[in-house]
Specification:
The protein is of the alpha+beta class.
């Protein structure tokens, strides 16, 4: 078999780069970022390999006479332009930090990444630094530095803040950190007069070329779309699904512990509370508290509010209740046999059982288990003493925002006597009325507390609409039920489909009826996800794509939408859609059971981030469909070896999907690079997640080159490739977060 040098070089060198990048992410975990940056990413060999890839790629383009395919040619030229821009930035750019104080001193030097002093061609002075907060909270919304640049006779004022860059003479200043006394600011300095322009030109050309590729009539994607085997439709039929009797796994059973009536608990849940650096319904605090302790937002038929307030008003009855879920080695330390412990299990005659093991334990997993159990113990202590309930706002002189207090917090000395008395006594009076069974009186006091909140925190409380929306979201958000339903349907449908396809029996009337039923149910799940994601976005005030829980929820939604788009042409995708949606929801549950809705970190407040994550999630959804397609083809290949037509048809489906998948992944990576450049002054930092996203892109891009890499034209090779290549996606999303860390560990 001939394997010409022009083809060997670009693909061979790319393979070497892939191995080096995989090795670097492993070494970074062992030796640190500085080690791999110096010895791999910034090493002359690594840089020369990228250069050799670009040069050999251009020669291969000429060898293949790709100039006759202008759109494909422009895609490759755009990639070459991006590499040239990266090399230019590396050779001519400068990075560093400058420390400014509000003492009027003008600075002209900054410290480079190498630790050397670099001179600016002008002076810069910090006029003021201040922190912007979300209304009514101490959660930072922005960090703002007001500066003045003096360049000879020119004086120019500017502002540096998160996601807002100040530029002067090709120098760009980014907000990086600030001094504890808020009188000093540390700005990142980036000087890249040529590289950014070249790189952004490459991004623009690449984006435009990718769009054109899906529009031109003779592209490989359009040819696959009109392939005769795909026009006949899939042989798939769907699940013959009877009724499902889903029951949640129950926890402890027995007598329901004493707590306050539902009406009183709901009134209490309608109070405002300062929690997680924001103002929200106390119902949200109760739901997070109960889920944190028990793993579910309810207990023995009691609502989350009743559970939380049970600890406050009926502590002696609740301390023996086994509702604290314990994991790992902590169960042995506490001496419990099941999964649940009571508060009394945490102590013995010598004191707290966890205290000594926490001081001595060195094993990471065991220590994590002990710390999690200890956190739950402390959380209950805060609830029982009332310090968890920061429900009393107080506006003091000189403060623009009210401070929120609990009944145990130290109050200011200049607070009015009436306000002091109300904060100290109102909860005691509520407890007294509840203890005597006078629940109507208790409700009246709770409502007076809310009136106090509305008067004292006027102008900074969330609107009534947003407040009610959050309460509705708390009641509506049952991801576990949707996850279980989708996963079970997906698994059974997958098994049933493979069996029916092996028998060529997929066109009966009952199959069509079941298909319509499952489509209707999937539409209901889609509406549910749209509603919960939309409510979460409205309540939080930002597009819900800021953490792992939210991105997996969005991935579940995208998998459902993609299923609807393609299911009429490729019916096999319906079972895959259920399975990917269910697994995504399950991962969101495991990652963070009922995660709190929080204000967005200042650096994450760019709309580019949401677009970046959206494209990445669409890509991952498509790649997951391809992987499932490969698994089904593998099953059919062994169950019915003679039916190569079905296997080939499935291969054509995956080959069709790989084009938009790679395009979306490419767009997501480069939009993320632009966001990083706006936020941190560099569009690529060799963070582990960036590296693995690039690895994933390069691996899947190989599948686009079927003319050059003939193995990808073999259906079973392609299917097995999609199964193994999906490991890159899993490592990128999960492996980096849990094992490697980096700047992207929040996602």
């Amino acid at each position: 078999m001939k394997f010409p040098l022009p083809k060997l070089l670009p693909f061979g060198i790319t393979g070497i780069i892939l191995v080096l990048m995989i090795t670097a992410t492993i070494l970074e975990k062992i030796y640190g970022t500085e080690f791999v940056t110096r010895h791999i990413y910034h090493s002359p060999i690594f840089i020369m390999l990228w250069g050799a890839t670009g040069i050999s790629g251009i020669f291969y383009i000429l060898f293949r006479k790709m100039q006759h395919h202008p759109v494909t040619l422009s895609i490759h030229l755009a990639l070459a332009l991006i590499l040239i821009g990266a090399l230019t930035s590396f050779l001519t750019g400068k990075q560093g930090n400058i420390h400014l104080r509000t003492d009027g001193k003008a600075m002209q030097e900054f410290i480079s990444e190498e630790g050397t002093a670099e001179t600016l061609p002008f002076h810069i002075t910090l006029d003021d630094f201040h922190i912007g907060y979300y209304p009514g909270t101490t959660a930072p919304m922005d960090y703002i530095s007001d500066v003045t640049v003096t360049d000879g006779n020119i004086r120019q004022k500017g502002t540096v803040s998160m996601n807002h860059v100040y530029k002067y003479r090709h120098y760009r200043f980014y907000q990086s950190a600030y001094d504890p006394d808020s009188k000093g600011s540390i700005l990142s300095v980036s000087y890249d007069p040529y590289g950014i322009g070249i790189t952004y030109a490459g991004y623009a050309l690449l984006g435009w070329s990718l769009i054109l590729y899906f529009l031109v009539p003779h592209s490989r994607f359009r040819s696959l779309l009109h392939h005769p085997l795909l026009q006949k439709g899939s042989l798939t039929c769907l699940l013959a699904l009877g009724s499902l009797n889903l029951q949640a796994v129950s926890g402890p059973t027995g007598v329901t512990p004493q707590t306050i009536p539902l009406e009183v608990a709901e009134t209490f849940g309608d109070l405002y509370v300062y929690y997680n650096d924001r103002i929200c319904p106390l119902q949200t605090l109760a739901r997070d508290f109960t889920t944190k302790l028990y793993g579910k937002p309810g207990y023995k038929g009691l609502t989350a509010e009743q559970v939380l307030l049970g600890w406050l008003f009926n502590y002696d009855r609740w301390k023996t209740e086994p509702l604290i879920r314990i994991k790992g080695e902590a169960a042995n330390v506490l001496g419990i046999k099941g999964k649940y412990a009571s508060l009394t299990d945490f102590v013995d005659g010598r004191g707290l059982k966890l205290e000594q093991p926490l001081q001595q334990e060195q094993r990471l997993n065991t220590r994590r288990s002990l710390e999690e159990a200890n956190e739950k113990f402390n959380l209950i202590s805060m609830a029982a003493t009332g310090s968890l309930f920061r429900i009393y706002p107080s506006r003091e002189k000189g403060n623009r925002q009210p401070v929120w207090y609990s009944i145990n917090d130290k109050l200011p000395t200049d607070i009015s006597s009436g306000k002091w008395l109300f904060i100290r006594r109102s909860m005691d009076l509520t407890a007294e009325e509840i203890a005597h069974g006078r629940y109507g009186k208790a409700v009246e006091i709770i409502r007076k507390i809310k009136e106090y909140q509305q008067n004292e925190a006027v102008g900074i409380l969330p609107s009534d609409t947003r407040f009610k929306a959050e309460k509705f979201y708390n009641r509506l958000n049952h991801t576990d039920v949707a996850a279980i339903i989708c996963t079970i349907i997906g698994i059974l449908s997958f098994i049933w489909t493979g069996r029916r396809m092996s028998r060529h029996s997929c066109t009966s009337a009952s199959d069509r009826t079941l298909r319509n039923i499952l489509l209707t149910l999937l539409a209901a799940i889609c509406l549910y996800l749209c509603l919960t994601i939309g409510l979460r976005g409205y309540v939080s005030g930002h597009i819900p794509l800021s953490n792992g829980y939210e991105t997996m929820q969005v991935m579940a939604l995208f998998s459902v939408i993609i299923t609807f788009i393609f299911q009429h042409k490729f019916r096999l995708l319906l079972s895959f859609g259920y399975l990917i949606c269910g697994l995504s929801l399950l991962v969101s549950m495991f990652g963070e059971s009922n995660p709190p809705v929080t204000h967005l970190m200042p650096v994450l407040q760019s709309p580019l981030l949401s677009i970046h994550v959206m494209f990445i999630m669409i890509s991952y959804s498509l790649l997951a469909f391809m992987m499932m397609n490969g698994v089904m083809a593998e099953i059919l290949h062994h169950a019915r070896p003679s039916d190569y037509i079905t296997v080939e048809r499935l291969c054509l489906v995956s080959r069709l999907l790989v084009y938009p998948a790679v395009a979306c992944l490419t767009a997501g990576i480069f939009i993320g690079a632009v966001w990083a450049n706006v936020s941190w002054g560099r569009y690529w930092g060799w963070d582990p997640k960036e590296v693995w996203a690039l690895i994933t892109l390069l691996v899947y891009a190989a599948a686009l080159h079927t003319d050059s890499l003939s193995a990808f034209r073999q259906p079973m090779f392609f299917h097995r490739f999609t199964i193994l290549a999906f490991l890159c996606v899993l490592i990128t999303y999960f492996g980096v977060n849990f094992f490697m860390g980096g700047m992207h560990s929040y996602a």
